[in-house]
Structure formats: C-alpha cells, structure tokens
Amino acid sequence: MSEESDERQTVSGTGGSFVPPYPARPELEPSVLELIQLARQSLLSVWTQRSFTRPWLKLTVLRRLLFICNSPQTVQEAFVRKHAIYERKSPQMRHALEPLIGDGLFVSDGETWRRRRQIVAPIIHASRVPAFFPVMAETIAERRAAWSVRGDGASVDMLEEMAHLTAEIICRTIFGRELGRDYAAEVVESFTAYQRHIDQIDILSLLGLPDWIPRFRSRAIKRAVKRIDTVLEEIISSYESRAGGGETSVIGGLLDARDEDGRPLSRQAIRNEAAVIFMAGHETTANTLAWAWFLLSQAPAVRAKLHAEVDAVSPDGDPAFEDVSRLTYTRAVIEETLRLYPPVPILAREAGQDDRIAGVEIPKGSIVMVVPWLLHRNPTLWDRADHFEPERFLGAARGGQSKFGYVPFAIGPRICAGLSFGLTESILSLAMLARAFDPQLEPGTDIQPVSRLTLRPGERLPMRLRARGG
Ligand code: HEM
C-alpha cells in the first residue's frame, strides 16, 4: 500500500493557529465488536492515526466487506468515474431515512433518483439563490434583533440558536414566507422527534440480512412519521388554496414541475421531496454555523480579520446578494469549518455489482465509503491538518488543493443539490450576526465533536452573546 505524497496540498501556515478538539485516536485497530461498540457512541472514535494516511482501508464487519476510499484517486474512481456502480446509498442510511422521506431524492437510486434529481436540483440550484436571498437575510435579521433584546452577555445554546435559524430559513424557503413562519415550530419539532429515535447503525444490514426482512420500527418512530405527514399535508393543501402569491418557494417549484414526459409529481413525491430538502438543508447548515462560532471564539486573530471584513464590505447595512462574493475571508472561515468538522462525516454507498478499486476486489453488496473526516485531516494532503487556519482557503493555497480531497458536500453526480444555497446561507448568517455580536464560549465548557447522523459539538454549545462595539 503506497502513501500518496505527490498529492500533498501546500498551505500557508499562520502564526498562532490552534488545534480544536478531536477524539483520542486509538493506538491499535479495534476488533469488530469494539468497533461496533465505539461506532454506536460516535463514528469519530474508531480511527487510528494510521487510518488518516492510508489510501484505502478495508474491513469485514460480520459478513459484509466495508471499503473506504481514502485518497483523491479512489474517491474520484468510486464517486465520479464509477458513479453508476456506487450510486446506491448504504442499507443503513436507507433504512434510517425511508420512513421519513420515502423514495425521496436523498435515498433513492436508479431511475427514480435520476428523474427526481432532474426536477429537484434546478429548484434549489445556485441560479435560484438570489430569489431566496431576501428570505435568508430577513430571517437572520430577525434572529439578530432577538439577540439584541436579550441583551449584552446573554447566555444561549448556540447549537439550538443556529438550528432554529436554519430551520426558519429552510421552512420559509420551502413553504413561502407566511406558511413557513406559521408552521416552522411544528415542522422542526416533528423532525427532531423522528431523529431522536433512529439509529444509523442498522445491525440487521451489517449482518448481511436482505432488504426485504422487515426492520423493527418503534411506536415512537411511527408516531413521529404520522406527525410529519399531517403537518406536510396541511401545508401543501394551504399552499394550493392560497396559490403561493407569486413568491418563489420550493413547494411552488415542486407543484409546477413536470418530468421529461410532461407529467407532474404525485402528491406523495412532493411531500417526500419537501421532507428531503428540510432534512438535508437544516441540520447540516446549523452544525456548520455552530462550529464556526466555536472556532472563532477560540481564535482571536481570525475573529479580528473576519470583523474587519464584514465591517468593510457593507459599511452602511447588511450585505446585498452581490456583496457575498466579496466576503472572501468569511467564506474561508466557513470552508475551513467544513474541513475540520464536516457535518456529514461519512458518505456510504452499496456496490451495485462486483468491482475492483485500487486492485481490491469489491463484491456486489459491499459498503463503499468516503469519509470526509479522514480525508480532511490527512496530513499527506493538508499541512497542519488538525489546525484551524482559514488562510488555506485563500489565494494560491486554495488552488493547490485536490477537489477529491475536500468533499464536505460529497462529489460526483450525487453532490449536494443545495451546495450554493448552504454556502450562501452560512456566509450571510456569519457576516450579519458578526456585525453586531462576538459570541464567547461559556467559561469552563468542554466541547467535543460527536457524530451519529451528523457531526455536532455535543448536545449543547453554551455561549455568551457579547455585543460588538457597544
Ligand atoms: C453546509 C450545508 C450543507 C452540507 C455540508 C451538505 C452536505 C451534503 C452531503 C454531504 C450530501 C450527500 C450525502 C451522501 O452522499 O450521502 C448532501 C446531499 C443533499 N443535500 Fe446537502 N448539504 C448542505 C446544505 C444543503 C441545503 C441548504 C440543501 C437544500 C436547500 C441541501 C440539499 C441536499 C439534497 C437535496 C441532497 C441529496 C442529493 C442527491 O442525493 O442527489 N443541502 N448534502
């Protein structure tokens, strides 16, 4: 197994950068049983230091081969060149999310995925972001006003604050301003209830049992799904009766959409795709922002540069859409946050046929993964890989990076359909809130990354809202 030193990415180091927390790395490879045990607590605790530098990793969990593409070449091979073989999501992911999103884009494959992707991607594509921008800016301004009311030094759970902010933004984007506002709390609560009860580690699938064997679904999950169904049904009906009022919204786009044969989406498909966009677009962005606030609170020099930029780019008010492209340092802070704490730290697929990657036999049904958590901290790809240094995403340093070694939004045909939306939302939120506030970590707080479905800073992120320039 050769190390791939030719792929090393040069980055400009900055003095005074710091190493934010990551779980201890075991010296020895854990046994399969230890692995399952560790993985149930957090999917980040299972990797040894060596795991980060190996171009691929392979293990057999019970009867299934698990292969990890861990170099830019193997990532490109599986997720881009051989997309057709590896487009199917892992059974664990499908079983965790199917009750919630049915045949929605995020878990579908084959013809269903292709057709849905063609319909859904344009509705949230980069070219639509300017139309959604006013809703984003308005929602962020409301949150900032609410912080001002709470006063200088108020204690908040920043994870919860960011979860509410991004949920409000995505709800108003999907359902339009008015309905989004009315139903946001119910949508958030019903999805949260669902997520509390699912477990990504689906032992039946790891044991190699086929898909048709029914999975146990607790009454709590069924109740949560029923609640989501009811609220989505109610919103879609209200939307139809009000006819949208000419506002750009995802639901309007889904109702108007026609497939390549000119057919509209079924009611069930509209419900599923609305659920996909809410699920995919809410927690990922919330976690990114929460981590960004944490990192900034620990890095005074980075904070000073960010403040200088946000103050200079729109001195007389909030950034307009055109200003976002000038917030280059703020963008670098977000990109570095996504490198260190990728909200989706593991991308897992199922091999649709027998194959071979990097000379290794991959039997049909094997799980093939790309693990952003490993790639993004690989010291043969990144200098000072565990350090927080937004400068690596600026200027010439940025150009030296392999796009297959940095995959917070995945890569290939299944790349995040809301990439531009999520990046713009994150940059704008940070810029608008940092104009007025400089949140500090509550003294004595120990923050550790935890990963189940997404990677988050534990259950809470206690911070104090310090007003800037006041
Ligand atoms: C910082 C924010 C975000 C991150 C890091 C992120 C990351 C990802 C990743 C890694 C995937 C692929 C998952 C996999 O292959 O298993 C994905 C898929 C997806 N994301 Fe995002 N996402 C973000 C924001 C958003 C937003 C705001 C939306 C919607 C407005 C969105 C919509 C989607 C959709 C629809 C898919 C499924 C694409 C497909 O399977 O064809 N995401 N996202």
Question: How would you describe this protein?
Answer:
The chain is of the alpha+beta class and 470 residues long. The protein has a single domain (5-465), classed as Cytochrome P450 (Cytochrome p450), CATH 1.10.630. Helices cover 49% and strands 9% of the residues. It contains 17 helices and twelve strands. The strands form four sheets. A five-stranded mixed sheet has the order 1-2-8-5-3. Strands 4-12-9 form a three-stranded antiparallel sheet. A two-stranded antiparallel ribbon has the order 6-7. Helix 6 runs antiparallel to helix 7 (158-175), helix 7 (158-175) packs across helix 8 (177-197) and helix 13 crosses helix 17 (419-436). The longest helix has 31 residues, at 267-297. The protein is globular. Bound molecules: protoporphyrin IX containing FE. Protoporphyrin IX containing FE is lined by residues 105-106, 117, 120, 124, 276-277, 280-281, 284-285, 288, 338, 343-344, 347, 408-410, 414, 416-418, 421-422, 426. The site of protoporphyrin IX containing FE has 26 residues, from helix 5, helix 12 and helix 17.
Q: Widest sheet: strand order?
A: 1-2-8-5-3
| Oligomeric state as shown | single chain
What Rg is obtained from the alpha carbons, in whole angstroms?
Answer: 22 Å
Order of helices and strands: HEEHHEHHHEHHHHHHHHEEEEHHHEEEE
Range of helix content: 40-55%
Distinct helical segment count: 17
Question: Which structural class is indicated by helix and strand composition?
Answer: alpha+beta
- Compute the number of strand runs: 12
